[in-house]
Amino acid sequence: MTTDAAAQDRTPGRKTAFDAPERARMRAALLRYMEEHRIGVPTLQGRIAQASGRSTELIPLKTLQRFLADSHRTNDAFLVPVYQFSKDLPERHDEFTAIAGGLVSFYSPPGSGSEPRPPGAFSLLGAFDVYEEGTDQSDRATQTGRMTFDPEQSPPALLVREHQYLPGNSTGLNDPAHIFEGIVVSFGMFQIGMMRSTLTHLPRIHWFAFGRGFALQSCCQSCAIQHTGPEPTVLPPRTFHLRPAGAETAKP
Fold it and tell me: I need a surface site. Which of 34, 142, 167, 185 has the fewest CB within 10 A?
């Protein structure tokens, strides 16, 4: 760390502790930045180091990868330069909040006004690994991505971000094939996720409900991200299983 960077860390009033919502905002901003600039984690590491006046050795690549994957709790000291880099990156919470408010009002039962309904019977907070049942004879579930749900300021909406892995890559959080973002709104016993590709803004919709053995399932339909015709192609519905990140990967 340079002398100037060390002095900045000791500046009175400088932010040195980060709670869970702040960590989620930093993570979302960095992932969006990577997607929009088409860069990987090593390039991001270099840009954070340059912006904070630190050596890249003081921003370990593996620690940054774990933070982006939300697989380990990262210590506050490491997040100081990450915060400095990400705090001025644009957020998209405002438009999601407006959409959530409109959906809640539109689907409210007659006579209920626009009061939000209570959350559904299951919690979607946190990170979930996403699996799809195989079509071969083994019928083994294949991990296709990860979804992360964070509370929005205006309940009952949740902010949701989905990383879709490249085929055959179950560790693709740091270099996902596609990233989707949006909101999840609760309507009593079920919840609907309204999402879009961060690259093309084409839509993706998830219906969340309980499946076999009270496991969380999603029925998903989306547009193909890459298409050759004049209009986007709507893909057939797919059923996914969601499990808390790090859970056993046995067949659902």
Answer: 167
Any long-range contacts for 201-205 (C-beta under 8 Å, 24+ apart)? 202/232, 204/162, 204/180
Q: How many domains does the chain have?
A: 2
Domain boundary among 43, 67, 86: 86
Provide the 3-class DSSP secondary structure of residue 244. Answer: strand
Separation in Å, CA 133 to CA 4, 112, 137, 146, 207: 53, 40, 11, 15, 17
Whether the per-residue pLDDT at 116 is higher than 80: the answer is: no
- Whether 124 has a pLDDT exceeding 80, the answer reads no
| Residues 102, 54 within the same domain | no
- Note the pLDDT tens digit of each residue in 13-59: 567 888 877 887 788 788 878 877 888 899 999 999 999 899 999 99
Which pLDDT tens digit goes with each residue over 55-64? 999 999 999 9
CB hemisphere CA count around 48 (13 angstroms):
29
Which amino acid appears at position 4 of this protein? D
pTM for the full model? 0.61
- Which of residues 86, 120, 143 is at a domain's end? 86
Instruction: Kindly report the CATH number assigned to the domain that includes residue 161.
Output: 2.40.128
Structural domain harbouring 230: 93-244
Give the three-state DSSP class for 192: strand
Q: Could you tell me if 142 and 134 are in contact, meaning their C-beta atoms sit under 8 angstroms apart?
A: yes
